[in-house]
Amino acid sequence: MRFSLATLLLPLAIAFTPADAEELAAGISRDKVEITSNFTGADVVVFGAIESEAGEAIADGTHRDIVIVVRSDQESVATVRKKELMGPIWVNRETRQFAGVPGFYFIASSRPLKDIAAASVLQQFELGLENLALGPAPGSNGGPPAFRQAFLDSRVGGELYGQHEGAVTFMSGSLFRTTTSLPPNVPAGNLRVLVYAFKAGRVVSSNAMTLFVDKTGIERQLSDFAQNWPVLYGFVAVIFSMLAGFSASVAFRERS
Amino acid sequence: MEIYLPIAEMPVNVFLVIGLGAAVGFLSGMFGVGGGFILTPFLMFWGIPPSVAVATQSTQIVASSVSGVMTHWRKGNVDFKMAGLMLGGGLVGSLAGIQLFNALKAAGQADLFISLAYVIFLGSVGGLMFWESLQAVRHADAASPVKRRAPGSHFWVHGWPLKMRFHRSKLYISAIPPVMLGSLIGLLSVVMGIGGGFILVPAMIYLLRMPTSVVVGTSLFQIIFIGAFTTLLHAVTNHSVDAILAALLISGGVIGAQFGVRYGERLRSDWMRLCLAGLLLMICIRLGVNLVWPPENPFSVGIEAVP
Fold it and tell me: Which of A24, A206, B287, B294 is the 20 to 30 A CA-CA neighbour of B218?
């Protein structure tokens, strides 16, 4: 597994927090999402509270900004192709690859991200779709903007990526929450739930949790079977297909 | 009713998938084509990853072909000798096809080649067949006697050495043309990712001059092997055969194929050729339009998980 820049810098950020650091407590409504045969997506509530060092809840939470990220670490390679007219026909011409793209990325914030921190800070923690580290190589950032945007649009369209500014709401002065919707096609694997508390454009506190997304039951067994015994799986698939075809023809002969 | 697919990692509507399987199975039983060239685009349109769509549709092809072949076999409509020769050629052809496919992929033009090959083959085969069968239908409607193949009215290639007798097809021809045809189909099925039924069926009718009734059964028999080989290949290399999706498609497909065989029997052979030609031309036009029509979104995105 690759550790992103944000992960590496997180301890640093905490270590350098000044004396007026505030305690951040956070939790998730469930720490496990099971993908069963009737899985059609799931909602997970991320909530928490910021407290002052003295242990008292801060009366006015609006001075603090909360950014919540739910993302997968799964490493995928995205290939973006652009069709161009070549003679009379449209042909895939230019191709760009983005390595190390997360399978799922959700970000919610209490205010527009640009009002919370400077672009350099947002980039450092990969906060916001435009600040995701997408590039030709894992961890790098780059590629033509049009291809990058095309990739992000396709993810947002598929509900696998989402940026919801203002979706973190304060229930009282210090209690905050947001809801993330995992779409039915969310990739199986662990999701990291990251909660950042910002003050005056700096991260003053953060919290990391893990949300397990896993196939269970028959779904789990079938995908394990396909991964671990591919030859046997293939033969079983072929034999099953043949038997199904055979039995249908026998059944219909008796009827006619 | 939705059900989650473990390999495709997404839910689908159960009834839609069974219905699609049944429709494609019907065409398969009737015309002797595998139907992958219809099934794959549909599955991809529903958002199923291309590798899963291609791998899983091959199981449906195996199932509906077996379902159809059993019925044709009982009626004596499968020429095993002919099929064996073509399969032998197909093995050689598919090995050559792998080389060709890798060369095209290295040149970065595999997609374009596949699309163009589809349009050219579907267009020319469909067009010729449409014209011929239209003439045949007209003649028959004019109450003129149906032209039957006179004994000995063979192509010159039929007179090549290694003559063999094919009882089922009522032919006494050289073994070389079937082997050559088989190897061409093998090559195309690897490069284009198809079973090859839509090329095989017209070729057996017009080039080998086999009776239409025997052609459908023999083509289906061959497609079983091509489909089984494709399934194994994808299961081993990509782990992309989705068992649940396969089970749904198959349950529709095997029943559809049974109805297809029955309906196909009642259809006169010139009408059957006309219908198949129409189907091929329709798909050709759709693909052709796709090639020349300005795309709504010029960008396409493919995601691959890194193991």
Answer: B287
